[in-house]
């Protein structure tokens, strides 16, 4: 026989559809809870205990909640007994008081009214997301202020904290998820739908990634940067650089970047800190297309996966110091980080063979463990 807890669980599963019916302005209909259980007890004492338990939580005893309808049924072991054949809620008040949701639904109704008064076009969103209306119960005044601003200024070109909206300076940052969903509906024609980052998606300024690079040719550093050779600038500015260089060396680790100035003199060359998979920040640097590109990463699976990623942007990229000879010479039995990547990588045959060895054995040789003497000799011939 069904228990009061099971009745509660089944009733709670009806709650979302009830909220949706409120938005659609449908009147409350008798809400039936399926019992799904037949009587199996052979002891009259157990039977009476179960019946009393169900009845004790019903509207008959508590003044609200579910109503029970009984019918005389002939049982196998106990003869004819009154068994509950129907469990239902007669009114909205019975349903909500049983769930303890009266105040929550009052707030929901009020917020739905406020939202639709401002933006009737959000009705479908509310129907699909009633729990999000409830989850942001005390925020709607501020959320709607933000939405109203973007509706009137769909291309703000401000940093988030510069937005002239009378909310806390961190409010938008802390509520990006819900605001994003609403703006996707409200200003869809201005949304950069291919962009995942909030600022890019909604035409805001943002703190761009910095590209850090070292100028390995002193003539260039003197001419263009007043002798400064260690530089970091926003990626949009880096994309516009116009330097008389012919070669770019991208290194995976910061430690290796520090040592690049000790390399043999390299005319017309800069070295860039790729910062692992952050090499994607370089994908739109189109002045790279005509340059000689060298990539130097760790000899591990991630190093080759980053090389493959970078090569999808710039097919001419050549790996350096990532060969089996260097690995066999300096490997110190270090473990790597396992990978879940199974797709074919953009590697040469030799690189792919070494990649498979590293992947199978979970091995790693970090690039900074290759002695500088060996590195310098390599670049002397590069």
TrEMBL record:
Pfam families: DUF3322, JetD_C. Residues 206-376 form the Wadjet protein JetD C-terminal domain. InterPro entries: DUF3322, JetD_C, UCP028408. Transmembrane segments: none annotated. Residues 4-184 form the DUF3322 domain. This is Wadjet protein JetD C-terminal domain-containing protein. The lineage of its organism: Bacteria, Pseudomonadati, Bacteroidota, Flavobacteriia, Flavobacteriales.
């Amino acid at each position: 026989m069904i228990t009061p807890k099971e009745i509660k669980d089944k009733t709670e599963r009806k709650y979302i559809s009830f909220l949706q019916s409120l938005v659609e302005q449908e009147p409350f209909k008798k809400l039936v809870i399926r019992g799904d259980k037949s009587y199996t007890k052979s002891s009259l004492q157990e039977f009476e205990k179960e019946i009393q338990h169900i009845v004790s939580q019903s509207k008959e005893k508590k003044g609200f909640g579910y109503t029970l309808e009984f019918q005389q049924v002939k049982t196998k072991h106990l003869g004819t007994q009154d068994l509950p054949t129907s469990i239902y809620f007669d009114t909205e008040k019975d349903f909500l008081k049983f769930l303890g949701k009266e105040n929550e639904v009052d707030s929901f109704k009020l917020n739905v009214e406020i939202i639709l008064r401002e933006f009737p076009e959000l009705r479908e969103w509310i129907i699909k997301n009633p729990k999000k209306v409830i989850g942001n119960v005390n925020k709607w005044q501020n959320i709607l202020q933000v939405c109203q601003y973007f509706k009137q200024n769909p291309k703000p070109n401000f940093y988030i904290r510069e937005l002239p909206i009378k909310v806390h300076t961190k409010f938008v940052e802390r509520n990006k998820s819900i605001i994003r969903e609403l703006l996707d509906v409200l200003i869809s024609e201005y949304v950069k739908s291919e962009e995942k980052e909030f600022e890019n998606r909604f035409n805001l300024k943002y703190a761009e990634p910095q590209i850090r690079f070292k100028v390995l040719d002193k003539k260039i550093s003197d001419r263009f940067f007043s002798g400064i050779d260690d530089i970091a600038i926003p990626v949009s500015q880096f994309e516009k650089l116009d330097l008389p260089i012919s070669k770019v060396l991208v290194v995976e680790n910061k430690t290796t970047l520090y040592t690049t100035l000790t390399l043999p003199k390299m005319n017309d060359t800069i070295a860039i800190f790729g910062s692992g998979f952050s090499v994607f920040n370089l994908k739109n640097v189109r002045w790279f297309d005509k340059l000689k590109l060298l990539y130097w990463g760790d000899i591990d699976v991630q190093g080759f996966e980053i090389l493959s990623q970078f090569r999808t942007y710039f097919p001419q990229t050549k790996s350096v110091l990532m060969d089996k000879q260097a690995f066999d010479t300096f490997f110190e039995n270090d473990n790597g980080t396992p990978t879940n990547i199974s797709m074919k990588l953009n590697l040469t045959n030799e690189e792919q063979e070494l990649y498979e060895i590293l992947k199978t054995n979970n091995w790693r040789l970090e690039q900074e463990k290759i002695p500088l003497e060996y590195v310098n000799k390599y670049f002397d011939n590069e």
